[in-house]
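Input.
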Amino acid sequence: MSSEVAARRDAKKLVRSPSGLRMVPEHRAYGSPFGLEEPPWVPDKECPRCMQCDTKFDFLTRKHHCRRCGKCFCDKCCGQKVALRRMCFVDPVRQCAGCAPVSRREADFYDRQLKLLLSGATFLVTFGNSEKPDTMVCRLSSNQRFLLLDGDGDDHREVEVARIAAVQMLTEGLPPGGGNARATGMTLQYTTPGAEGLTQLMLTAGEDAEGSRRQATAWLAAMHKAAKLLHEARDQ
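Output.
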């Protein structure tokens, strides 16, 4: 990939919408696959009452729109200002009591798990029906649009995140005393331009170094969360 193309992918611009300032990709096609579009606001004339508590709006009780769902509420039901990074808002924005907790949970992905995905981890990688896995570092690209896999020498592969159709965690056993099974790997199924059907990729955490394995396990958990956000964005 040329530096010029990479710069175009990562270029951003500051725009002002009715909901607030947003830092968005300069080219829409290069937006994050985890992002959400701003919802249309319910017109003022269609909401004479709060859509949560049914309080009637008047001179003292003003109406406010939730930036995440676009519905109309009173200040009591829509008074929280919470970061909404999936819509690229620069500052925390007003959200209703139903949407605010969802945005707070997503903030954990952006603050912790996204950093893990960007830093990458080492896996044994099996492409398709290949019998021999390759040792590769897998990480998310800085614009969040590609999984980058780097092996020995010039061995470099890319998987477009938006083309991932299915993700399945691979686990083994249960820890003593109960709890969750240990993640050992992941299978990704994705479409390839010009090819029919789905291509499969399997990532397996190696057994060589404990620190490397912990990093791989944390990366898998972060990727599993990313897959959920990806499907939510598609269903918007």
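Residues 21 and 90 are 6 Å apart (CA to CA).
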